[in-house]
Structures are given as C-alpha cells and as structure tokens.
Amino acid sequence: MKKEQYMFLILIVIILYLLFLIVNYKYKEYKINTHITVIENTNSNMEKNIDEYKEELEYISTKAYKNKVLKEEQAMKNKGEIVIFITNEDKYNKFSKDESISALPTVPVEKKIQDSMDIFEKWMYFLFKKDIR
Fold this sequence. Notes:
By secondary structure, the protein is mostly helical.
C-alpha cells in the first residue's frame, strides 16, 4: 500500500512539473509575440516618418523652395521683379493690432509719493519711512 501511494505522489509531482513547463512555455511565447507586435508597429511608424521626411527633404531641396525662402526671408529678388507676399490669417493676426484690446477702458494710474522725490529722498523714505521734502 505504501508503494502505491509513493508512486501516486511521484506521478502527481511529475504531472505538476509538466504543467508548470507548459504554462512557462506559453507565457514566454506570449511575451515574445507581444514584443514582436510592438516592434512591428514601431517599425511601421518609423517607415511612415522616414517617408514623410524624405518627401519634405525633396521639397526643401528644390530650387523653387530655395528661391521662395530667399525672397521671403532675405529680400532677394530679381531685377524688375515685384514680390507679393501672401500670408495666411494666423500669421496676419499674430502681427496685426487687435481692435478689441484698444476698445477696453483704461484704468487711471495712481501717482505714488515716490514719483516726485529725488534719489536721496527716496532712500530716506524707504529706510526710515519719513517724508523729508
């Protein structure tokens, strides 16, 4: 009877060990697969960024773009050429004067006692709180 019980316990231990190995293998497989998907997504995003940067680089390296930048930023224009700059509304509003700000009522500025003092009188007022005018 004892021998059968030991054999049963040994079989249970072997089965538990095999279950542990199976679960461990599946967990590692899951981690590897998720890591692979993360890397694939990162690669696809990087490829998109690279393509966008290549297009932008091709656009920047064109002669027309260089000519446009020289005319806009450095006032380089050809003889007899009149350059008209067309800006969008955001740039225009950024540098234009806002009418709503000037329509606000102004608050009268209060005069301070120190405004009419010279430097020595200001120091005396600051240190000793005495008006010696």
